[in-house]
């Protein structure tokens, strides 16, 4: 396992339109706003109810770094410098692989941002973990938008499921390592 030395707040990756960087507590307001959008809450478990709770989410995300060597990234739109999403690798205890997840602010939907962040962060992850033959995505059976992102990067349902105590059963989708070679 490679533990990155990038400090909280530091840039991890840059794509054509996005910067993927570590979170800090300065992101609390934007993170709270992102996860309290009704359209986001309709597809995920309820977002952090207060800014205190949003701060706890950020503490959990940043606490994942020293435990695993990676965690979800803050997604910053390069043209505006705004935090417009959360995406990247995640593997809490008991998961059958490294998840690449994605959530974008509804004001930025359907611009290809989730796809752009997903491909960049999956590549970054697989470069660091050469023994992983796939990345996974846990997606509710009703979450059509997230399934479309998974399909677009070349994923498919693996047949496995995990049970989330708040969200219920989630399908595990998987994208094989080979797919990321083709996005040159
Ligand atoms: C899922 C989500 C991240 C997609 O973000 P996005 O930036 O709009 O996705 P992209 O623009 O990169 O789209 C990628 C592909 O998915 C398709 N897609 C996106 N939303 C879709 C929808 N609602 N219905 C059908 N297809 C959709 C796009 O058309 C695109 O495919 P195409 O290029 O072949 O047309 C966003 O809807 C979201 O944040 N939802 C709420 C949180 C959530 O559900 N997170 C995932 C939890 S598993």
Describe this structure in words.
The two termini are 25 Å apart. The protein has helices spanning 28-35, 38-41, 51-68, 113-128, 144-152, and strands at 11-14, 18-21, 73-77, 83-90, 99-104, 134-139, 156-164, 168-176. The relative contact order is 0.14. The chain has a domain at 11-133: Aminopeptidase, CATH 3.40.630.30. Helix 1 (28-35) packs across helix 3 (51-68). It has five helices and eight strands. The strands form two sheets. A five-stranded antiparallel sheet has the order 1-2-3-4-5, sandwiched between helices. It has a three-stranded antiparallel sheet with strand order 6-8-7. The model has no long low-confidence stretch (mean pLDDT 95). Bound molecules: coenzyme A (COA). Residues 40, 43-44, 102-104, 109-115, 139, 143-146, 148-149, 152 line the site of coenzyme A.
Which key terms come to mind for this protein?
184 residues, alpha+beta, Aminopeptidase, five-stranded antiparallel sheet, binds coenzyme A
Short description:
By secondary structure, the protein is α+β, with helices and mostly antiparallel strands. It has a domain at 11-133: 3-Layer(aba) Sandwich (Aminopeptidase), CATH 3.40.630.
**Bound chemical compounds:** coenzyme A
Stated plainly, the CATH topology of the domain at 11-133 is called Aminopeptidase
Rg over C-alpha atoms, rounded to the nearest angstrom = 15 Å
Note the main sheet: 5 strands, antiparallel
Strand content: 25-35%
Given as residue ranges, the uncertain stretches (5+ residues, pLDDT < 50) are none
Q: Note the run of SSEs as H and E.
A: EEHHHEEEHEHEE
| Tally of alpha and pi helices | 5
CATH superfamily of the domain at 11-133: Gcn5-related N-acetyltransferase (GNAT)
Q: Helix amount, in percent?
A: 25-40%
CATH class wording of the domain at 11-133: Alpha Beta
- The outline comes out as globular
Number of strands: 8
Strand order of the main beta sheet, please? 1-2-3-4-5
What structural class do helix, strand and pairing data support?
Answer: alpha+beta
Mean pLDDT: 95
Terminal-residue CA separation: 25 Å
């Amino acid at each position: 396992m490679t533990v990155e030395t990038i400090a909280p707040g530091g840039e991890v990756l840059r794509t054509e339109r996005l910067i993927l960087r570590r979170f800090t507590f300065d992101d609390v307001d934007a993170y709270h706003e992102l996860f309290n959008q009704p359209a986001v809450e309709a597809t995920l478990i309820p977002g952090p109810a207060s800014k205190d709770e949003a701060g706890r989410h950020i503490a959990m995300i940043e606490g994942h770094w020293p435990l695993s060597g990676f965690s979800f990234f803050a997604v910053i739109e390069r043209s505006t410098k705004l935090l417009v999403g959360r995406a990247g690798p995640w593997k809490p205890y008991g998961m059958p692989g490294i998840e690449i997840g994605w959530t974008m602010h509804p004001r930025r939907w359907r611009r290809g941002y989730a796809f752009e962040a997903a491909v960049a962060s999956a590549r970054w992850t697989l470069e660091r973990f050469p023994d992983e033959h796939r990345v996974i995505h846990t997606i509710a059976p009703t979450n059509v938008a997230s399934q479309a992102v998974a399909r677009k990067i070349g994923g498919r349902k693996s047949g496995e499921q995990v049970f989330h105590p708040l969200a219920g059963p989630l399908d595990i989708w998987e994208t094989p390592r080979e797919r990321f070679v083709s996005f040159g």
